[in-house]
Amino acid sequence: MRTEGSKAFYIHTFGCQMNQADSGIITALLKQEGYLPAESEDDAGIILLNTCAVRENAVDRIEHYLQHLQGLKKRNKGLIVGVAGCVPQFQREEMFSASPAIDFLAGPDTYRTLPLLIEQARIGLKPATLDFNAAETYEGIDPFRQGSISAFVPVMRGCNNMCAFCVVPFTRGRERSHPFSSVIREVQQLVASGYREVTLLGQNVNSYNDPEEHRNFAALLDAVSLAAPMARIRFTTSHPKDISEALVRTIAERPNICNHIHLPVQSGSSEMLGRMNRGHTIEDYRQKIALIRSVIPGVALTTDIIAGFCGEQEQDHQATLELLSEVQFDSAFMFFYSERPGTLAARTLADDVPESVKKRRLQEIIDLQNSISNKLYQEAVGSVEEVLAESESRRSSQQLMGRTATNRIVVFERENYQEGDLVNVLITSATSATLIGKCEHSDVHRS
Ligand code: SF4
């Protein structure tokens, strides 16, 4: 197979929803320049890895994929491989020595240079564009989106916090927000073209600050919900110290804003939160939870937990378990701490919890959270939930998969329903991660 000069590109996306949204921006930028998306890597002349540096295992997966691409390059002469996103931003030109497969590097603020990088790579250069650009929001780019039901809309990029474990401030740079008016316009266009759900995205959406009139995230969410009254509105991610009462009241007041908040806590111990530089105590967090629960009926809360962060003692771990028991999160992303080079923790704290202890604590956290999720999901059996059908279920074309407003996954018999329908589903059984049900026949909402 020879692909020299081919303009077909394939993007392999690692990591979070921000990276998925960025892959949509990259696709749009390349298409503007005459490049075409390929169905698979075998059909591509250019393979782009859009990478995530947040967790060690994501970086390991990227290294494995690069090994695979090295083999592919031997068979596929002229194949160009680029690495974009957080990993090259962080590792910089040193990344070239990690794999001979790499032809060029691009950071999260330099995707507009990709066509130039590809052309330079074709003549044998090893170019890299890794500058931060605090003004870059990719304004004016209409991102390519997978699917036609649910869309991500980035509203801000970067992060001004400095959580000790996190590489994001070093890979995505300072915060910058999209103009209020352009977010509203984008949401209106999505809804007009048939999307039924919009998720507003940012590393810390609560610190959204309209560059034109300095309106905050509560005002943006309110305006988005009014501009798209028939669409479900979600947002992620929220930092506990920045979630405001105004935001919580907006969620409660607008029926189309989903009653689910992802509120990463990371640890149940104020001592650990201090070491993590999170900017709040566990009592502050409890007060935010109490406010949210008192204002938003039926709200579902999810979180992130890190087990075994630097200096974590047994009592800190117990405090995390107590918090999980008390708050009863619907679900959680749970990891054990792995040091990321260059972070505040890597520079100032000893990674001193033995791996066996980290793993044991993580397992205790997972076991407890699974039992809580299982209990909460079993309690939903017998209820009727409004579900937005998103896709065929993985197991059967006779079933649809969708989510409740509280972000629970529901699998139900398709009958005469289709993707995009809002369906009332009677929940008949549950696992700790999925509700299973059948349709209540009275309601099909299509718009
Ligand atoms: S708020 Fe903290 S954890 Fe989240 S992206 Fe910013 S630095 Fe990272």
CATH class (first level) name of the largest domain: Alpha Beta
Write the CATH architecture name of the largest domain: Alpha-Beta Horseshoe
Question: What count of structural domains?
Answer: 3
What share of residues is helical?
Answer: 25-40%
Find the structural class using helix and strand composition: alpha/beta
Q: So how many helices?
A: 14
Number of strands: 19
Gyration radius from CA atoms, angstroms: 23 Å
What key attributes describe this structure?
single chain; 447 residues; alpha/beta; pyruvate-formate lyase- activating enzyme; OB fold (Dihydrolipoamide Acetyltransferase, E2P); 3 domains; five-stranded mixed β-barrel; 14 helices; 19 strands; globular
Overview of this structure, please?
The protein has three domains: 122 residues, Rossmann fold (3-Layer(aba) Sandwich), CATH 3.40.50.12160; 227 residues, pyruvate-formate lyase- activating enzyme (Alpha-Beta Horseshoe); 62 residues, OB fold (Dihydrolipoamide Acetyltransferase, E2P) (Beta Barrel), CATH 2.40.50.140. It has a six-stranded parallel sheet, with helices on both faces. Strands 15-16-17-19-18 form a five-stranded mixed beta barrel. It is 35% helix and 23% strand. Helix 7 packs parallel to helix 8 and helix 12 packs parallel to helix 14. It contains 14 helices and 19 strands. The model has no long low-confidence stretch (mean pLDDT 93). It has 447 residues and is α/β, with parallel strands linked by helices. The longest helix is centred in the C-terminal third of the chain and has 25 residues. Bound molecules: iron/sulfur cluster (SF4).
